[in-house]
Amino acid sequence: MFGLDSTALGATPMQKYKKLLRALAALTVVAATAFFGGPVAAQDDGGGQTCVEQSIEAHLMTTADSQSAVFPIDIPAGTVSIPSAVSRDFYPNRENITQTSERWELQFLDAAGNVIATSEPTGDVPDLSADATWEGALADVTLPVPAAGIRANHRPDLPEDGTPSSVWASGVTLCWPPVAVVPDCGTDADGNTIQPDADGNCPAPPATPDCGTDADGNTIQPDADGNCPAPSGPTTPGPAAPGCGSDSDGNPISPDADGNCPAPQDPTTDCGTDANGNPVSPDSQGRCPTPAPKGPTDCGTDASGNPVTPNADGSCPVPVQGDTGPPPKPPASLPVTGIESSLLLAMVGLFAVAAGSAILLRPASPLLVKRN
User: Strands 147-154 and 104-109, how do they pair?
Assistant: First the structure.
């Protein structure tokens, strides 16, 4: 600590006394550090940065402790500037001692105690002075992860001169830029994180369209893209679909694409006749009922006596040899029977007899009398 190893030379009573004083001074500094060595509350330096002045007051030397205690601190990941670091050294007869590496560096530790970054070393404390101080700025340090603690680490090897190069690491000032608070904007319909805009604000949520209600009166929800689903059945966007009644078969009548009930058909609609020839009446909406399916067509039998199957349109296929074909249609009028034929012949005979009798009873013409 004094530049020479006093134990190797044999310590005199005066040297022992000075060593005791030095030990008492060290204990005083340690006690002061325990009570007052914590970090000063972080303050704004006026330029938007957060700065902390950390007192260390650790005596570093090669023959004793080469590192200070760890001082808790909370620094976010990123760039940390060190605008000030202070070193001091004092002991009797120092004005006659030269030590070329009374230096130290600052180590940054993560929550697990691992060193994550180290500053450049401080400058050498001026020699040949009973009490000397070095103060200066150190280069910026980049933290890959947040720092949870700092400590001073002795560097007597810059250069190594064989002396203890003892030094007091008094303290440092650390500054870092403000940490941007990223708001939690939630996730979109696909589960992706919604990012804030350039100003750090969450984008306004899209307006939810009014998709109306379904046939049961339940609110229709838009899809993932914020669009109303296409209407199906009696549902339409907007108000609930109106009731349009039912047709002659009892089926509900659906509204059109605009949500309106279709106009009823003309009640005078000609719906034809049924199988018995009776007129078919339209329903309450003026629509003709669905005609009842026709019965199977009788196409006769084939040569083997099997029924002939009608065509798809209900018509009978053209008969082939041996087929009976469809049964004949009933005649439009009764056929002429033998009774009607005999009556006609009798009338013709009577007419002929009457004509012959008239000829016989007619007087003879003078021209026909034979002249003698």
Answer: antiparallel
CA angle 295, 301, 305 (to 5 degrees): 130
Alpha helices in the chain (DSSP H): 6-9, 13-36, 338-361
Q: In 263-286, which positions are buried (b, 16+ CB within 10 angstroms) versus exposed (e)?
A: ebeeeeeebeeeeeeeeeebbebe
- 8-state DSSP, 109: E
- Mapping DSSP onto H, E and C, the string for 132-189 reads EEEEEEEEEEEECCCEEEEEEEECCECCECCCCCCEEEEEEEEEECCCCCCCCCCECC
d(CA 84, CA 172): 6
* Per-residue pLDDT at 8: 34
pTM: predicted TM-score of the whole model, two decimal places: 0.45
In single-letter form, the type of residue at position 327 comes to P
Phi and psi at 168, nearest 5°, equal -100, 120
Which residue type does 258 have?
D
Helix, strand or coil for residue 96?
A: helix
Do strands 43-44 and 50-60 pair parallel, antiparallel, or not at all (unpaired)?
A: antiparallel
φ, ψ of residue 13 in degrees (nearest 5): -55, -40
What DSSP letter does each residue of 66-84 carry, written as one string? SB---EEEEE-SEEEEEEE
pLDDT, one tens digit per residue, over 70-128 is: 999 999 999 999 999 999 999 999 999 999 999 999 999 999 999 999 999 999 999 99
For residue 107, give the nearest of 64, 58, 63, 62 by alpha carbon: 58
Distance CA 187, CA 166 (A): 58
